[in-house]
């Protein structure tokens, strides 16, 4: 179900850096993107990087137009210019993905 | 009466001479409020486009006032008839004009209230300074203004109601208008020059290059954007999508932000419903952080509405990506989970109701534990109420429209078509399709501060 994307933990060094910086202001955090069906994709991203990059990468990965899916953090829509810092995201936080739903009913 | 008092009485902002400049104002500036009042009254009449009476009698005798009011009634009566005829013939220009007039009328009514207060203040001020004749002259003018302005407002409210009823009496016209709006939308024709003014964002939206519209930011809205395809669904009698529904949620949370008869309402977006109500893809503890405080931001933004315990939580639920219905948890007066469904309502219980019912109970408990730790948390008997006697869809496309209207009605009161719902928002008991309501919703969505109430 889950796989790692972008900059996965490829080396012990990465993990060490993570630990080193935990007490201060870590430069990067790990983010889990969860689809409505429960599929998970992991990303590692700098706190100051605009989330546009992550959203684009995810959309690309799942083969959808980035404009047709919504990304939510704590229930709030993420805009392209948001950063983990501006949203006060913490390490291992979750981003929820919502695809457009429709309804009218025809039998 | 002193000489000075007489002088001042002469500069009373007489309604009959409002079009003239009050140049006779004495050098004594102890009544700047009088001057401001005079200017404002002039402005009111100009904005209301009411011609002043021909008589310049001072003050205007009651018979002249009657004549004046009759004239106003006559002029507006004729205009209303013309307007109605244009509207029912599906004239887009008339339609846009009627929206503009609605907005103007609400503004004039607010302005009128403000002037009534100003009149009062000035009269009291005169009394306090012992200028009794001045004060009584002001009160005379106040009476005339009151009579004329109230008549005007009442007349226009009548016109407004009449011009709204065409939605019910001429459903085909609504279809024609929707189609015209849609065409304008695609051709991005310059409506501004067409109708000579730019009444609303509605028109600017039609003209905007991208066709995208951003719902104004508020506590409950994080910059939601509606795209042409979303609007097209509304205009072309198609199924509504979650973007459009969510746009309304933002609007509804603003519209019903205060308590009404001690009852608070809180509307939740489609994503909230998917995660926590139906199908319920996330456990409720994810609403809070490790320390047990609320972290789900839309819920945090609605915190105030939970304080006095009488609150209704309203969620649009999507079933199988084909159908919208509404669930509402009412806590306070009653403890019920209500279902308003334009399709399944009267048959056997639709399975998603039960899931939503269970999830809403857990949600309520989570809210109580998070925000009201001290309060007693008892396991209540929650009643599931499926509203079966409500207007329902007769076609294969309107469930989203019904869902939006059910939510709107729940804002006004606990039942569909309750007595607090303005006439123009009521749902017809039987209607083949809701073209008129679609137009109404479009106005509700795109026009700023238009309340048809």
What's the gist of this structure?
Chain A has about 110 residues and is an alpha/beta fold.
Descriptive report:
The complex is a heterodimer of chains A (107) and B (453). Chain A has a six-stranded mixed β-sheet with strand order 1-3-2-6-4-5, with helices on one face. Chain A is built from two helices and seven strands. Chain A has a domain of 72 residues: Roll (Ubiquitin-like (UB roll)). In chain A, strand 2 and strand 3 form a beta hairpin. In chain A, 27% of the residues are buried. Chain A is an alpha/beta fold and 107 residues long. Helix content of chain A is 21%, strand content 30%. A five-stranded mixed β-sheet of chain B has the order 4-5-6-7-8, sandwiched between helices. Chain B has a two-stranded antiparallel sheet with strand order 1-2. In chain B, strand 7, helix 13 and strand 8 form a beta-alpha-beta unit. In chain B, helix 1 packs parallel to helix 5 and helix 4 packs antiparallel against helix 5. The two termini of chain B are 47 Å apart. The chains are: A alpha/beta (107), B alpha/beta (453). Chains A and B meet through strand 5, strand 6 and strand 7 of A and strand 3, helix 11, helix 12 and helix 14 of B. Strand 7 of chain A pairs antiparallel with strand 3 of chain B, so a sheet runs across the interface. Chain A: It holds the Pfam family Rad60-SLD. Chain A: This is Small ubiquitin-related modifier. Chain B: InterPro entries: Papain-like_cys_pep_sf, Peptidase_C48_C. Chain B: Keywords: Hydrolase, Protease, Thiol protease.
Largest sheet of chain B: 5 strands, mixed
Structural class of chain B: alpha/beta
The largest β sheet of chain A comes out as: 6 strands, mixed
At the third CATH level, what is the topology name of the domain at 28-99 in chain A?
A: Ubiquitin-like (UB roll)
CATH superfamily of the largest domain in chain B: Ubiquitin-related
CATH class of the domain at 28-99 in chain A: Alpha Beta
Strand ordering within the main sheet of chain A: 1-3-2-6-4-5
Measured as a percent range, the helix fraction of chain B is 40-55%
The overall pLDDT average of chain B reads 80
Percentage of β-strand residues of chain A? 25-35%
SSE ordering of chain A: EHEEHEEEE
